[in-house]
């Protein structure tokens, strides 16, 4: 699946090379440290959707509010269509992620959630995924309450994962991407 996605990723990257200087100045790709299986750190690949900002460490709640202001109009389109996540297939090819599994949080947030959210650690028993049960059932998790719900779905996925569940998640993800429902 990742090999099939590579030509499309290349096409989008070429289009962004042309469009970015006008609508989203800066690098095409964004890389961020995330925690993978067994809490091993790795760098996730994404198409950049925000204006660059100084690297700071802020509480999750403050960061969410500030990040929304940095999203560019082109970035909003990339996020709504989920195209910003396509480079995650590079992580799949590197063996750091799978297509379906718990969606990895940034390392800083993950370390905070490991201390404060019960059952959050379950997600590290499997490789993280581009999409997962929490994404199709709960959508984007903003704040601690939503992350608690996401952790519940991640635990449920780890405990009950099977081919049928993965197929259902893949079909549900395709529906979300094609219809734009649940997009943030």
Overview of the structural elements:
53% of the residues lie in helices and 11% in strands. The protein has 8 helices and 4 strands. A two-stranded antiparallel sheet has the order 1-2. With 184 residues, it is mainly α.
How would you describe this structure in keywords?
mainly alpha, two-stranded antiparallel ribbon, two-stranded parallel ribbon, 53% helix, 11% strand
Give the topology string: H per helix, E per strand: HEEHHHEHEHHH
| Broad structural category | mainly alpha
Helix content: 40-55%
Number-wise, the strands total: 4
Q: How would a textbook summarize the main sheet?
A: 2 strands, antiparallel
Q: Give the integer mean of the pLDDT values.
A: 88
What percentage of amino acids are in beta strands? 5-15%
Number of DSSP helical runs: 8
Q: What is the radius of gyration?
A: 16 Å
Query: What ranges have pLDDT less than 50 throughout 5 or more consecutive residues?
Result: none
Strand order of the largest sheet: 1-2
**Backbone shape:** globular
How far apart the termini lie comes to 25 Å
């Amino acid at each position: 699946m990742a090999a099939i996605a590579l030509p499309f990723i290349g096409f989008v990257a070429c289009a962004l090379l042309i469009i970015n200087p006008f609508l989203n100045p800066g690098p095409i790709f964004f890389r961020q440290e995330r925690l993978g299986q067994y809490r091993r750190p790795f760098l996730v690949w994404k198409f950049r959707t925000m204006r660059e900002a100084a690297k700071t460490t802020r509480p999750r709640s403050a960061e969410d509010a500030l990040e929304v202001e940095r999203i560019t109009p082109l970035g909003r389109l990339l996020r709504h269509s989920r195209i910003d996540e396509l480079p995650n297939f590079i992580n799949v090819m590197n063996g750091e992620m799978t297509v379906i599994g718990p969606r990895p949080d940034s390392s800083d947030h993950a370390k905070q959630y490991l201390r404060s959210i019960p059952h959050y650690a379950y997600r590290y028993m499997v490789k993280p995924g581009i999409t997962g049960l929490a994404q199709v059932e709960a959508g984007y998790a903003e704040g601690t309450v939503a992350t608690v719900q996401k952790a519940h779905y991640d635990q449920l996925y780890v405990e009950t994962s099977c081919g049928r569940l993965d197929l259902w998640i893949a079909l549900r993800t395709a529906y979300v991407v094609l219809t734009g429902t649940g997009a943030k």
